[in-house]
Design goal:
Length: about 80
């Protein structure tokens, strides 16, 4: 039997899925929120590494560009002050 992840044994995956099934909905939502915040922090860290010269406000605007697309981000937040290279 194959698994969803190449580095997880079928037995370990079976246990993981069973634990997720038994987990209350509020805890699943808490985990999703934690993963979302971690993704957000990682994305900002990557942008900060690529654009060390811009302000925190502009980093958030660059992230909005990636999340929403540049057209919608410009409509919502206005144009970028920093031109990407």
């Amino acid at each position: 039997m194959s698994t969803l992840s190449r580095d997880t044994s079928p037995e370990a995956e079976r246990i993981q899925i069973e634990l997720l099934r038994q987990m209350p909905s509020w805890r699943k939502m808490e985990l999703i929120n934690q993963l979302t915040l971690m993704w957000y922090d990682l994305a900002l860290t990557g942008l900060r590494h690529r654009h060390p010269e811009v302000s925190d406000e502009e980093l958030h605007r660059l992230l909005a560009d990636r999340m929403l697309g540049s057209d919608l981000a410009t409509q919502v937040y206005g144009p970028l002050r920093h031109e990407e290279k």
